[in-house]
Write the structure tokens for this entry.
Amino acid sequence: MATIGPLARIARLGSSICRNHRLSFNRSTQRRGIASCVDPSHGLTDEQKEFQKMAFDFAANEMAPHMSEWDQKEIFPVETMRKAAQLGFGGIYVQPEVGGSGLSRLDTSIIFEALSTGCVSTTAYISIHNMCAWMIDTFGNNEQRERFCPDLCLMDKFASYCLTEPGSGSDAASLLTTAQLKGDHYIVNGSKAFISGGGDTDVYIVMCRTGGKGPKGISCLVVEKGTPGLSFGKKEKKVGWNSQPTRAVIFEDCAVPVINRLGEEGQGFNMAMRGLNGGRINIASCSLGAAHASVQLARDHLLVRKQFGETLSNNQYLQFKLAEMATKLVASRLMVREAATALQENRSDAVSLCSMAKLFATDECFNICNDALQMHGGYGYLKDYAVQQFVRDIRVHQILEGTNEVMRMIISRNLLTES
Amino acid sequence: MSGRVLVGVKRVIDYAVKIRVKPDNSCVVTDGVKHSMNPFCEIAVEEAVKMKEKKLIKEVVVVSCGPQQVMETIRTALAMGADRGIHVEVTGKDYENLGPLQVSKIMAALAKKEEALLVILGKQAIDDDCNQTGQMTAALLDWPQGTFASELSMEGDKIKVVREIDGGLETVKINTPAVITADLRLNTPRYATLPNIMKAKKKKIANVKPADLGVDITSRLEVLRVDEPAQREAGVKVETVDDLMARLKEAGRI
């Protein structure tokens, strides 16, 4: 090994085998090397850049290589999520005294955006889990916080959020699951639909009716798996989000201790709405990650694929299209980060900004991923290529956490209500 | 002995970046390009932190030479578990010309100043692939060296090092204080955790200049020109082994 050349190649190979890195080039969904206009680290503090770098590394090494398998085999990657929890991702904005990382909403958005480049579906579940841990941390009493939060932050236990029912989606306040007080227990009857993680998780945050009709009659109960009367429907077959199981959650005379109620009776709906503000930023952040990864993939493809004697990157239509995609990505990112900042500062425009950011980012990012798929031509349609999974996985972000139509309701109400 | 380990870390262009040479062929483009810690330096930091966790040593001090930007690299090491950092400030032309000889002089001076038990470095940097700093540092200090380490164990006041060499694996036992350079299979570097990244903010990074350490960093080398490797040419297919032999002889390869 006398010459420098082979040494350099071996050193580079050696360093690229480091940490079991991506093995095949066309599966590479994450390029840390891009220092360009879509670099998501622009404008961040040094500390945020550290969080982001670490999340990107975790996504590239621990998630991206498995993203396709988790999707095709519908695997709930418990071990990988536990590894993520070891790094502090189980309760990112939960208080440190109960095991959380105590970070801000903006830090959280940056982290989910980075993790999402490795697997949208898994990151989305992690964000739901985080929201549940936060709800207990914020609205629970000290006994409840100490009972549930440490296990959730380490992901020794997993959580699910139960609001939606077969008969109440957008019209969440009309939910029918009842909880009747009998002594020191609530007897819960009803069913919840489309519950992420349902059946495989341990702790269920359930919104149910303890009082009269409408939002004021809703309370929040924490139901643990194994409680008699708690059962699950069949695992749904979905277009995307396949690394998390989705099931109906069924309550038949399920007795839940009163000490599992978060806050007072009638406060449930308020908690749900407050939880959704953060949840919307989280889901929008997941869309950002998918769009970022898709723009990288499209860019790489354009530089490699040749037709009519030159690479696609010389085609002005595609150049302009890529520019539009990049512009929409950065615009979405700015909205989401501003909404996160508004939420953590408790600004008066926080709720509408979160709705606007969710609406804009989920719509635009879906279009970006879809355009990226188109740029791949026929290859974009094959499951060997990651771009189709990004498209399928983020399609649902325009529907859940409040449909984009409901986002428009919130925003128009803000505009048209006399102040 | 202080039970202190000095770890050198280098900020290099990220391994995933496609490098380009400047149009004037003076050097590689570094402006605006993503940088990160040299992968072998990450392995060195990890090993030092592991030794501290096993209570074999007491303190991990991480050192980096360069301009303000190397503070990022030092902070990454602090987030991995190093206790404090030393930023040796070298800027401008001095930084461009900074090579293994200069860095090893600095490391040697710091090793003496900090009364280090061990100096652990990456075996080489992925930008210049010199593979010299560890060896030169040991020579300047007149300390034993265990390079290309794929396994380390403390045995009393000696260190057993399993080295990866061309012929396979070689085990040596060396006295401390010593210089170790980390090879690929020594360990798998940990991810910094969110709490550790936040704790790292409070850890101290001292600022020193080479002159403060009495080190002369003038370079003895002058880079004349940097070129990209020759474009790979198409190969030629041959029908028989005889053909192959004839072609190879023709090309002067055998």
Summary: The interface with chain A takes residues 14-18, 32-34, 36, 39-40, 42-43, 72, 75-76, 79, 124, 126, 129, 131, 166, 184, 188-189, 191-195, 197-198, 200-201, 229 of chain B (CB under 8 Å). Chain B has one domain: 4-251.
